Fold these 4 entries.
Entry 1:
Amino acid sequence: MGSTSNKCVCDSNLICFIYLQNSGEVSSNQSKVVYVLGGPGSGKSTQCSKIAKHLGFRHLSAGDLLEAEAESGSNDGKMIREYKKEGKLVPSEIIVKLLQKAMQESQNKNFVIDGFPRNEENLSAAENILKIEPNAVLVFDCSEEEMTRRILSRNQGRVDDKIDTIKKRLNVYSESTLPVINYYSSKGKVRKIDAGRPIEEVFDEIKGVFSELNAGQDLGRKESTSN
Ligand SMILES: Nc1ncnc2c1ncn2[C@@H]1O[C@H](COP(=O)(O)OP(=O)(O)O)[C@@H](O)[C@H]1O
Ligand SMILES: O=c1ccn([C@@H]2O[C@H](COP(=O)(O)OP(=O)(O)O)[C@@H](O)[C@H]2O)c(=O)[nH]1
Ligand SMILES: [Mg+2]
């Protein structure tokens, strides 16, 4: 678990590694990864679409990648459906494989990753297999009442948007995802966003965080290099 300056998600890992070791700076044209976490219905996918559209990052939604895999009728598809219906998290190897492929195939190497890593198993795979050290982790703070209200009016025909499954997903978030957030918080990477506000207000705050990142200010770099 090194600092951001020695991790890379681009295809030419070795070259990038040497460059970063020598430069000691995160260059503004270096690949960036921002994680977006928050409870179900907190607005992650809504804001990630805006980040992709207006800020030029490639949006990778873990939930959408799983849904596409389930739709494809592959061997993993049936299992993904069962986990999703129950509001449970699929085994890490499945989502990691999908993310790895999507990242490799993308021309755009600046990624906003929506809804991953969601538990400690995901976190370990993100660090050790995907080799991602995020530049920032946005955490959407929203009340359970508001998240539930939003999901129940989302109307996307999702099998998991039913009250019983919503309750299970909220529990998974508190029990499994909050420890991941605490881990990144201890590294100074977390930016908490008040996601209970209207969509444009939330996005205005997010734009500020991305301005810092584009200026080469890696959130948490002070903490990780000061000692
Ligand atoms: N800030 C907001 N205020 C009100 N409704 C919102 C807001 N952000 C998202 N929504 C709506 O709430 C629902 C859930 O948002 P979504 O982005 O799918 O959340 P998540 O990806 O976190 O589950 C969607 O119908 C979306 O249009
Ligand atoms: O890394 C992930 C991301 C998602 N999911 C599954 O996909 C569902 C939907 O995830 P999504 O991010 O679409 O839900 P959201 O939080 O946006 O409502 C989750 O409840 C899990 O069952 C998973 O297992 N691992
Ligand atoms: Mg979503």
Entry 2:
Amino acid sequence: DDANNGTIPTPLTNYLDTQYFGEISIGFPAQMFNVVFDTGSANLWVPSQSCSPFSTACFTHNRYDASKSQTYVENGTGFSIQYAAGNVRGFLSEDVVVVGGIPVVQVFAEATSLSAIPFIFAKFDGVLGMGYPNMAIDGITPVFDRIMSQRVLKEEVFSIYYSRDPKRSPGGELVLGGTDPNYYTGSFNYIETKELGKWEVIMRGVSVGREMLFCAEGCTAVIDTGSSYITGPASSISVLMKTIGAQLDESGYKVNCDTVKALPSITFHMGGQEYSLTQEDYILRQLHTQGDVCIVTFRSLDLPPPTGPVWILGANFIARYYTEFDRHNNRIGFAAAV
Ligand SMILES: CCc1nc(N)nc(N)c1-c1ccc2c(c1)N(CCCOC)[C@H](c1ccccc1)CC2
């Protein structure tokens, strides 16, 4: 709307550099929810008032109560969605959803069961999928498509800033309709999406230091604002972790904090550009009672064809490279984050 010349910023909260989420409202009077704006999925769901009290993950979050909304419209169709981590089941409802001050009539899912692992660790209530319509379960028109059809955006794009320091405010920002120059420097480099309908690109290689180690023949990279880390095929990740001397334990890869300074950069070659992460970008230092723990923010993930083999570039990549998702030109833009 003219108040912000067609670009609307939504501040995000950064929880320990691993979870980023912002506030939306559903219903009238407004019921508030914290959601991850997730380019790896295309549906909106929030926990339901009718979720079972035994579903701890549901019970410990804000829940939507249809009986308290004057704008609620019943639907009742079944819903189920699977993420790389965890799954969600429930049923569809319709109500007015307000994102960045823009109201849309939206079909969304009321979650009645959430897999305890990992949703008990979620600091957010639900997920707002920012993916393309053909990724949407039950053929539901996604929120951003409904916003685009209102013709209120300056451009048919949205941008994501994730801060790299949990103490920094805001912890991040979603901009609907444009980009926010406060959070990037230099110009954007653009990469066409690999195929229409997914926020993924062709990657030309992954190098460590100056050595090209993986994906030299080309592979797929998903740019996923809903993932905390970078994931890659287990065979590649295990070689990569061995190269940097990381040990695998039950909660992921770790390195000895004394070696962090000497760790090499890891570079992703996309669109003729090199996107490097230094150890600052890919090591998460956590202060523990028994001394510092240095977590490597890479994970193995083997997805079966046709989706896989695939690399997923998540929050730790986006925190370094401010990302614009361009629905008008079906391309992704990266600029150096501030
Ligand atoms: C946002 C939905 C989603 N979308 C896509 N495309 N991929 C994945 N993996 C998720 C997903 C599902 C569940 C959870 C999650 C992420 N989490 C990460 C938030 C990332 O915020 C940016 C948290 C977490 C904490 C501990 C260990 C694992 C995960 C809570 C649980």
Entry 3:
Amino acid sequence: MEFPFDVDALLGERVTAVDQHLQPPGRRGPGYTAAHRVDLQQQLMTIIDEMGKASAKAQNLPAPITSASRMQTNHHVLYILKDNEVKTAGKGAIIGFLKVGYKKLFLLDRHGAHNEVEPLCVLDFYIHESLQRHGYGKELFQCMLQRERVQPHQLAVDRPSEKLLCFLHKHYNLQGTIPQVNNFVIFEGFFADQHAPVRKLPPKRAEEEIKPYSLTDREFLKEEVEPPWPFNQSHSLTRSSSLGNSPVRTCLKPFLNEQELLRNLRLCPPHAAAHHLLNGEPGGPAAQRRRTRRSAVGQDGLVAQRSSYSRYGNPAPLPDGVAGGAERRAESSREPLRRLQDSEGRLDSTMITSQDTSHPAPLPQPSGTVCYSEGTSLPTEPALTDRTKDPGVRAAPESKPSGLGDPVDCLPPRPSNRWYDPAGVPWGKQPSWTVAGVSRDAQWIRYKQEYRNTRPW
Ligand SMILES: CC(=O)SCCNC(=O)CCNC(=O)[C@H](O)C(C)(C)COP(=O)(O)OP(=O)(O)OC[C@H]1O[C@@H](n2cnc3c(N)ncnc32)[C@H](O)[C@@H]1OP(=O)(O)O
């Protein structure tokens, strides 16, 4: 692997060991200044980053597990093998690298006993594709063993590739592995000769699950399971990935604060079930029950407020920035009321029943929805406009959007033979509703509408 700077001068020795300080050990002339040192360190970081990427690519990893920044934050040692024989335009080249580091692990011995150990681990190993199977891997590995003063069977290997297993078998006769429940592989003889003190824990019970704290460098690469809504709205959450594996090594960002969660709630798209309502599609009884129940617990809260319970069926327009805002505005202006009804004209509402005597009694439906008695016609857009022509009725602004939490949104439908003021209140009457057997006024409904769906916990 070649670089636009003098790798040969930068690294000095054939095999260079680099730790978290990222100090290049290369030649330093008489005029060596702090600026030079920064330049050289930058070059070393470039080498580490590029090699890390190449290694990840060779192992089909989604992201590099070796980088300059990861080196700086871990007590690992990187052995870099350079090619100082074939000089590319006098600058040298990098052949490969081997990264090792001590890690505290719980490992099982042959008898199934837990052992708390801190062995040297092989974490990442890469030889450039064009130079593999030329003995460079062996040269580098051998150098590491000498400098670290360890025997091959004392090592733990972090998720070895097939190539590495073949390599270890061929050169060091490492074959018989001791099965582990984490991602590290150890070989026969590992427990026979340990430098680090081995602390034995009682053997595990058969039914007990083992949760070792084996900090593998590769844990952070695991795919994460999508969390349930609304926690999937933030990318700042990271979790430990799977049972039986070690904790995630990446830093855990703080949990969503309330403000952030509320913001996400407001911006989140409606649940798929709400599209039935938005599109006026018919749904079976089960689907309707699901819809209404979800609305009640708040999952589709915003949509429910905008559509299912809107008397005018004219939801507040969403801002353009909000996904689907423009489309939903267009749709809502075309069919403002269909979203209240299924194909048979039934209302999709189990939340609120009217006590206002002017409202017809709802007919119980097997589906759990509420059906209003025959003759009750849902107001249509022209009808609303006609009402405003009555001199006794104050004119309602036609395009007035019913805002979120507006009590008008949750009023039941009105019979067409009554006139209402723009707020939807019959003249001279203060409506009330029975919710869960208790009589509630518009103020209470408004409060509930405003606060119910934004706090799902
Ligand atoms: C913890 C970890 O780092 S796991 C990731 C290990 N890294 C990789 O898999 C990246 C891709 N592979 C490589 O970079 C290299 O092949 C290494 C580092 C595994 C070995 O380096 P090399 O320079 O090829 O090793 P070296 O030449 O000294 O030894 C060759 C032996 O390695 C093994 N080996 C190397 N390449 C392969 C391969 N493509 N398929 C199977 N075995 C291979 C064989 O045992 C081979 O002996 P052989 O040629 O007689 O079959």
Entry 4:
Amino acid sequence: MIGRLNHIAIAVPDLAKAAELYRTVMGAKVSAPKAQPAHGVTVVFVELPNTKIELLHPLGEKSPIANFLARNADGGIHHVCYEVEDIYAARDKLKAGGARVLGDGEPKIGAHDKPVLFLHPKDFTGTLIELEQV
Ligand SMILES: C[C@@H](C(=O)O)C(=O)SCCNC(=O)CCNC(=O)[C@H](O)C(C)(C)COP(=O)(O)OP(=O)(O)OC[C@H]1O[C@@H](n2cnc3c(N)ncnc32)[C@H](O)[C@@H]1OP(=O)(O)O
Ligand SMILES: [Co+2]
């Protein structure tokens, strides 16, 4: 059911510093920061030949990554994003298998203007999973 790895997200305490680190030290192509108010984060994408790294920083009072950064002051790997062809079919299959879909269970439009959903890390060996319909 799951397809390609779309991105790995890293929560960071200083977005400009992290973006600059990837641009200069790592020599990667790095996007401009983009606010995602519906998701409570600001994102920078680092383009790699085979996937992307999504640098995340909290946006607003109720960011879903605030507690994670409080627990991981230097930042850390926050989620992995797998592509799916049909997000509703994937959601229903996962729910039937007992996985918890986060939020209200309905897909939101993600950073690539495609529908996304998140699955509880406790149901996937401690890893927060994002599904993106491509
Ligand atoms: C723009 C978009 C895109 O790419 O298109 C994005 O990515 S938006 C990316 C940002 N959006 C999201 O992450 C949306 C989905 N995420 C959420 O709803 C939240 O982050 C939760 C996953 C529910 C966690 O929230 P929060 O940390 O406040 O809850 P909590 O403190 O009660 O933590 C519950 C337990 O889960 C663990 N936990 C929390 N976040 C975790 C993570 N990222 N990876 C692995 N484990 C994690 C905690 O350590 C804790 O374990 P213990 O109980 O053992 O201590
Ligand atoms: Co993401």
